[in-house]
Amino acid sequence: MGGCGGLASLSIGHLTSLASLRLVDLPDLCFIEGLSFLQLHSVYLKDVPKLKAKCISQFRVQKSLSVSSPVILNHMLSAKGFTVPEFLNLINCKEPSVSFEESANFSSLRYLSLYNSEMRSLPINLKCLSSLTKLGIYGCPNISSLPDLPSSLQHICVRRCERLKESCQTPDGESWPKIASIRCKEIE
Questions:
Q1: What confidence tier does 178 reach under pLDDT thresholds 50, 70, 90?
Q2: Which single residue of 1, 2, 63, 91 has CA 20 to 30 Å from 51?
Q3: Can you list the alpha helix ranges (DSSP code H) found in 29-148?
Q4: With contact defined as beta carbons under 8 Å apart, do 68 and 93 qualify?
Q5: Within 10 Å of residue 30's Cβ, how many Cβ atoms?
């Protein structure tokens, strides 16, 4: 669902077989009724700035979560019983920096992707993501270096990020020592 200005609430609890929820460009959406009854396979939330914390905390996502707002993400992460799904994607993030709620359960997170974001830096606490095996950074032109990375990381992909690409070059790039031991590197 997308582009519905003026829509303040949505009721989906009766959609018991709903597997995926995609909400895009809903500037007035504040509340989604019935979330606590659903186990969703994937959730995509882009430009839903007024979604209330009480509502956000009810999301249960099994496989894939995509969000454009670090505020929404951290409300989810701080919710009791919320487990970060296998795939987490930060999309079109306009904030200069993001940090993850460290008390969140990241044990299922395998793949983190940052896509078309204005961030100037990656979350400094990436190292705490002990199950992370793949990191993708796409179209993030303001990121110029990598923080410490988890030892579990096996694959890193950097595309359309010229400053970061330069920092990851062997042997003299600032970030090269942080990725040298990673098995698969795609720096384009």
A1: very high
A2: 63
A3: 53-56, 70-78
A4: yes
A5: 16
Residue showing tokens 């007035």: 28
User: Contact 99/125 with Cβ under 8 angstroms?
Assistant: yes
**Interval 150-173 mean pLDDT:** 95
158 falls within a domain: yes
Residue with tokens 């030892």: 151
Residue matched to tokens 């504040």: 30
**What is the residue range of 124's domain?**
83-187
* 70 closest CA partner among 104, 42, 38: 104
The SS3 call for residue 154 is coil
Tokens of 135: 């990191």
Label residue 5 by pLDDT band (50, 70, 90): confident
Q: List the one residue out of 54, 47, 51, 96 whose CA is nearest residue 69.
A: 47
Task: Tell me the per-residue pLDDT of 31-81, one tens digit each, with 9 for 90 and over.
Answer: 888 887 788 999 999 989 888 878 887 888 989 999 998 888 888 888 888
- Per-residue pLDDT at 18 exceeds 90: no
Length of the chain: 188
